[in-house]
Design a protein that fits this description.
Blueprint (H helix, E strand, L loop, with lengths): L1 E6 L8 H13 L6 E6 L12 E5 L9 H11 L3 E6 L8 H11 L3 E6 L11 H5 L3 E4 L10 H6 L5 E3 L13 H11 L4 E6 L8 H7 L5 E6 L7 H10 L8 E3 L5 H10 L2 E4 L10 H9 L3 E5 L6 E3 L4 E5 L3 H11 L12 H18 L1
Parallel strand pairs: 1-2, 1-4, 2-3, 4-5, 5-6, 6-7, 8-9, 8-11, 9-10, 11-12, 12-14
Antiparallel strand pairs: 13-14
Length: 360
């Protein structure tokens, strides 16, 4: 079986879907009887090259005028299945929306993964819906929130919910390991972490309303660039007298280093203005760590403390309560949880590929 994964972004791009694609491809590449290639406009740096996975580098971009150049790249690999990821920051032209049509015309079976709801995917429209042989989604409520015409069109299309796995490996640390990391970063204060891409939809400014600098040290595991208007705003807050020496910005770190800091922290916070959920790979990593985590949600049924996951869900618009929740639960820790992994994700994908090819 030959599978071509198509994505506008791929590491080192700062794109969650690109990062997801790397981990999916790495896990799929370990399976037998599967030949894998990735078509992307971002050529990976050495650490993101995967042995046995071919990179088809789209140097031309995603404008419609490059249709035949992309067609040639796809033809060279001649896949049985094209698996297209939506949305990514790397899709910079309208051709991305017509990729399913192109692959269908070439006689290739088309699977799409929608990482956002239909309205939030951006590059998804009628060409995606009408040229879809199989749909994978990572948000469990996606089918219920599809527009009526999309539901109708896809009613006989195979669909599968495949939960995300964590993209950060969490190590098991002993007390001395934890103490060493905390002494290096936060000294005697409790260590509160945020990690992920520092975009406006992550609500980093809310962290400064939640964390108490007198007793807690804020660790931002992310890049902050003064040339980015939103990130410059965060940097200006950090420079305020109240926060001087009480915030650490790590910059980009390898995933193993991120995992160590998370495992040593006293709390992890995701103050997203639009809420987070089970689809978020950063939240998955926090849950795996066993460290107390605060996350926002738009789902009323999730509100409150989930003891088995050590996660407290606050309403997305109730930032004020998060400080009280943090003070109450900070330092609470449960056992590491790594029961669901990328091997499970890739196994589900492989089964879906096989099912699709057998049906046609």
């Amino acid at each position: 079986m030959k599978v071509l994964v198509i994505t506008g972004s791929y590491p080192p791009d700062k794109c969650g879907v690109g990062d997801y694609t790397y981990h999916l491809a790495k896990s799929l590449s370990a399976l037998n009887h599967l030949e894998l290639a990735i078509l992307t406009s971002t050529y990976p740096t050495d650490e993101y090259h995967i042995e046995s996975v071919k990179i088809l580098h789209n140097k031309h971009g995603w404008r419609l005028r490059n249709l035949f150049k992309i067609k040639k790249l796809i033809s060279e690999f001649n896949p049985d299945v094209a698996h297209i990821q939506y949305p990514t920051i790397g899709y910079t032209g309208i051709l991305a929306k017509y990729l399913p049509v192109l692959c269908k015309v070439m006689g290739i079976k088309v699977i799409q993964t929608w990482h956002e709801h239909y309205a939030g995917c951006g590059t998804v429209g009628w060409p995606n819906v009408t040229s879809c042989d199989g749909l994978i989604y990572v948000r469990p409520d996606l089918p219920a929130l599809l527009p009526k015409w999309v539901k109708y069109w896809l009613k006989s299309t195979p669909q599968m919910y495949v939960p995300n796995a964590a993209t950060i490996p969490i190590p098991a640390l002993n007390e001395n390991d934890i103490l060493t990391i905390k002494q290096k970063i936060s000294k005697d204060k409790k260590m509160v972490c945020f990690f992920g891409f520092a975009n406006q939809n992550k609500g980093l400014e809310n962290l400064f309303k939640i964390v108490n600098p007198e007793t807690q040290h804020l660790v931002l595991i992310c890049d902050l660039d003064i040339r980015n208007p939103y990130q410059e705003k965060i940097l200006s807050i950090i420079k305020q007298e109240k926060w001087v020496k009480h915030v650490t910005v790590t910059g980009f770190l390898p995933s193993q280093e991120v995992g160590k800091i998370l495992a040593a922290s006293d709390a992890i916070i995701f103050p997203f203005p639009d809420g987070t959920g089970v689809w978020n790979t950063s939240l998955k990593a926090a849950e795996n760590s066993g460290v107390f985590t605060i996350a926002t949600t738009k789902q009323p049924e999730l509100l409150g403390y989930q003891k088995d996951r050590n996660i407290y869900y606050c309403a997305y618009d109730d930032i004020n309560s998060m400080g009280e929740v943090l003070d109450h639960y900070i330092g609470n820790r449960i056992m590491l949880n790594t029961s669901y992994s990328w091997e499970d994700v890739s196994r589900s994908h492989h089964q879906f590929y096989q099912k699709l090819l057998k049906q046609h």
